[in-house]
Amino acid sequence: MEHVILVRYGEIALKGLNRNFFIELLAKNIRNTLRSVPSAKVKKIQGRLIVDVNDEDLNRAMERVQKVFGIVSISPAIVIDSDIAVIEENAIEQVRSAEDIKTFKITAKRGDKTFPIKSPDLCCRLGEVVLDNVEGVTVDIHNPDLNLWVEVREQTYMYHEFIACNGGLPVGCSGKGALLLSGGIDSPVAGYLMAKRGVEVIGVYFHSFPFTSDRTKEKVIDLAKIMSQYCGKIKLFVVPFTEIQTKIVEMCPDRQTTIIMRRYMMRIAEMIANNEGAKAMITGESLGQVASQTMEGLAATNAVAGMPVFRPLIGFDKTEIVKIAETIGTFETSILPYEDCCTIFVPKHPETRPKVSEMLRSEEKIAEMMVQMMATAVAESEVVTL
Amino acid sequence: MKEIYLDNAATTRVHPQVAEKMMDALVNNYGNPSSLHRLGIRGEQAIKEVRELIAKNLNCQTQEIYFTSGGTEGNNMIIQGVVENKKRNRMRIITTAIEHPSVLDVFTFYENHQIEVIILGVDAQGHICLDELEAAMNQDTILVSIMGVNNELGTIQDLKAIGKIVKAVNPKCIFHADFVQGFMKIPINVQASLIDAVTLSGHKIFGPKGVGAAYIKKGTDIKPLLRGGGQENNMRSGTENVPGIVGFGEAIRLRKDSFNDEFEVIRNLRTAFINELEAKIDDIKINGDPNGSPYVLNVSFNRVRGEVLLHSLEAKGIFVSTGSACSSHKKEKQYVLKAIGLAEEYKEGTIRISFSKDITKDDVKTAVEAIAQAVNSLRLLVKPNKNR
Q: Are B315 and A347 a contacting pair at CB < 8 A?
């Protein structure tokens, strides 16, 4: 008897002719996440993926597979020969070894039509042998304590646990996006949500030493690492931003520094996105959350972008964002108390209704030198792959 | 770039001679002091020597010294040990608002446990008011814990006067002093000051991290934190950290005859540092007591953020610390600065500079020059009230 993980994919099963492409991609992503579990092997069977894994690695493998996008649910299952005597024996054992159950039900499915017993008959037969052989249990087909699934195919899979996963699409099927990652609570969640729709995420972090400490950089790397459990491999660009930021604060009106800084961040992120073949940018902005995220503020930063900017959190409240951050495990790291570049220069009275024309006028003085400074920043970015 | 390490109150660099002795202990004196054979006895011997050395410097008996893993353990061992041992209906424990978290957190923990916890405030220099202490003392008071030298400000409390007050009101009350920042820097005499328990640490005096000691007066009832093999006279089970203790001992030996002279040298350094700072930078405030420990200099710069200043200095090879590692997201407030009533506009811009004998006059010049440069350029950028 060996253990496997049954992997069910939902949405991607609907994608017509591209179906195979999606399934292959999902299998590849599962293989990638299981690199650290050498015993795991991923196989395709009709309508499912199967992860074959050593007993001792099962829990570790399940934990990792659960986080892969494109999976609806998984079940740890045993695999046995499709032989009625073996099936009976294992059904008895499964019910007997289950703890704290009074009622059970058998759900048998005959996928292999050469198997001599039809599904409803198999249900009855297995129910009977279990009743005869296990003390203290009765059948309840509506609300059983234990629902034992028996899928008879070339081999037979037996399981009773359904672990709901995150759904979505396999990462990589929707192209590449550049995520502006700050180290706060929001941006990792934004990246997570876009990855859920199949986007391969690259990270762009703006490092402003000494205004942001090296600890903040470590924190962002840690965040990217947590995200990579869901998003797959993440290429993180650490952009040296001190000089640009200082120049903006020096040369531009106080009220506008935040927005102008964000405009330059956007421009640089787009340069990196283009270099990397990304077709969109992703931010953690949420409408009205802070002064720079008013509709006018967003419009002013958006105006510099030549590609779509995805803002998956735009309609989320902070509490909703925090909830997701807690679920995916980035929250604890996000709230570590280091200075970050978004708070350090916040003016007392930031512009909440900036106009693009005003921004352009303020940027005139620096626009020329910025061309060179931005190119340097991109060239001198440190790349960390997680 | 020469490193100028001005964070000696956080920890110190191990003295090469200390490292050498430790290496020898690690490789050669590797027996378990509890073993009956001669290797065990050799280990025990090494520990005993250090125990004697510490006892001599505190003016107590050898068997009153217990080795620990450091200051946090020592403070917990003594405070928890005293409180957990008493089973009385009415208990009061007293401390100050500027203690190290390993004292303060234990006290606030007991606040929720039917124990009357009194936290004494301090004046602008960080001194407690002795009259206030006297008023807070009563027959239910089982423990008074007051630090000798404050880690952020350098303020020195008058332990002798405190001991007198405590014992006058309630001779049974246990008087504990966290002396981690004072040991081998300023003298202490536990008998003269009527102190029942003291916490010490190795790594503040060029010894290794992970080792410390506690003095607990004979006859003081304390419930041990760690049970097991019964080492340290049943007070602290666990195999003794022989190399650590040997290193701690060597660190003490290296300082015992010189620390009084060093005190004066450091005081001159500190004065020079302050004079230079005040000459080069306006709008600053020196916190604490001018007559406190010269090893610590706590200074606030208006219109600068401490952490940003710290990182600017780090880029120039100069290492300091912020008052209490604060930033706007920090859960824990800058409680020491709050306790001395430092004005809001200075609080954010506070750094702690802590000296050692390795700092030269030139280092002071270089450091002040760097601070002045950083502060002045940061003030241009980070101006909360910059005109629009």
A: no
Contact A210 B305 (CB under 8 A): no
In angstroms, the CA A253 to CA A257 distance is: 6
DSSP single-letter state for residue B194: T
CB proximity A246 to B under 8 Å: yes
Strand pairing category for A71-81 and A103-110:
unpaired
B79's tokens:
């405070």
Torsion of CA A28, A31, A32, A33, to 10 degrees: 130
- Residue carrying the six token digits 């020059």: B369
B21 closest CA partner among B174, B200, B244, B191: B244
CA-nearest residue to A252 within chain B is B388
List, in order, residues 6 or more apart from B71 with CB less than 8 Å away. B100, B102, B178, B180, B199, B200, B201, B212
Give catalytic status of residue B326 as yes or no.
yes
Residue environment code for A112-126, b if the CB has 16+ CB neighbours within 10 A, otherwise e: eeebebeeeebbebb
CA distance B244 to chain A (A): 30
Residues 6 or more apart whose Cβ sits within 8 Å of residue A3: A53, A54, A55, A58, A76, A77, A78, A79
The CA distance from B87 to the nearest CA of chain A, in Å, is 39
How far is the alpha carbon of A379 from chain B, nearest alpha carbon, in Å?
22
Exposed/middle/buried for residue A133 (C-beta within 10 Å: 0-12, 13-18, 19+): middle
A332 touches chain B (CB under 8 A): no
Q: Which residues of B touch A (CB under 8 A)?
A: 305, 307-312, 314-315, 327-331, 380-388
The answer to whether the Cβ–Cβ distance between B388 and A253 falls below 8 Å is yes
A39-59: buried (b, 16+ CB within 10 Å) or exposed (e) per residue? ebebeebeebbbbebeeebbe
pTM tops 0.95, yes or no: no
Q: Please tell me which of the candidates A210, A214, A336 has its beta carbon nearest to residue B312.
A: A210
Cα A241 to its chain centre, rounded Å, is 28
DSSP sequence for B332-357:
S--HHHHHTT--HHHHTTEEEEE--T
- Residues B5-47 pLDDT 10s: 999 999 999 999 999 999 999 999 999 999 999 999 999 999 9
| pLDDT tens profile B191-219 | 999 999 999 999 999 999 999 999 999 99
Decide if the complex's ipTM is over 0.85.
Answer: no
| Residue B330 confidence class, pLDDT cut points 50, 70, 90 | very low
> Using one digit for the tens of pLDDT, what is the confidence trace for B277-307?
999 999 999 999 999 999 999 999 999 989 8
Q: List CB contacts (< 8 A) between B315 and chain A.
A: 209-210
Residue B305's nearest CA partner among A339, A240, A244 is: A339
Contact B331 A339 (CB under 8 A): no
